[in-house]
Amino acid sequence: MSKPIIRLATPHDINPLAALFDAYRQFYEQAPDLPLAQRFIAERLKQQDSVIFLALDGDRTVGFCQLYPSFCSVIAARIAVLYDLFVDANTRKTGTGRALMLTAQQYAADNEFARLDLSTAKTNLPAQELYESLAWEKDDIFFTYSKEIVVTAKKQ
């Protein structure tokens, strides 16, 4: 594989991007659901509430990363959450993940985000190795918690 081309996703990219997003969800032990992946990615692009970068090898989409703009109250500044990073299994160890991460870092700098945050599974050692090689620091101070919410009614 040659050096990947990294660019912003557009609505024309929904199908190849959704296929990778579905594979990403399966990596995190979710059931395959391509229609769900297509809807979710289409909504993100339509509502412009995330930034998605694609990695291309020729005309093939081989990876992506997705950033969600947010805020940090403690530092009183805008930050971005790098929530998703995924590279096709056949393309790993080619520098594609690194290229996506560097693009995300440059985007954050260009758009005046004070920080990028991410989390990954404790067992995802290859990803941790990548992050640490790019000078990301593991948080030893804060724990991360989550709470699943059961939606009881939809807005009209």
Provide a brief overview of the structure.
With 156 residues, this protein is an alpha+beta fold. The protein has four helices and five strands. The chain has helices at residues 14-27, 34-47, 96-110, 125-133, and strands at residues 5-8, 51-57, 60-72, 77-87, 115-117.
- The average pLDDT score comes to 94
C-alpha Rg, in Å? 16 Å
Uncertain ranges: none
- Number of DSSP E strands: 5
Main CATH class: Alpha Beta
Derived from helix and strand composition plus strand pairing, the structural class reads alpha+beta
Helix fraction by DSSP (H/I, runs of at least 4)? 25-40%
Major beta sheet, strand line-up: 1-2-3-4-5
Within the CATH hierarchy, at the fold level, what is the topology? Aminopeptidase
The count of helical stretches stands at 4
Tell me, briefly, the overall form. Answer: globular
CATH architecture label: 3-Layer(aba) Sandwich
Distance between the termini: 49 Å
- At the fourth level of CATH, the homologous superfamily is Gcn5-related N-acetyltransferase (GNAT)
Number of domains: 1
- Beta percentage is 15-25%
What order do the SSEs take from the amino end to the carboxyl end, as H and E? Answer: EHHEEEHEH
Major beta-sheet overview? 5 strands, mixed
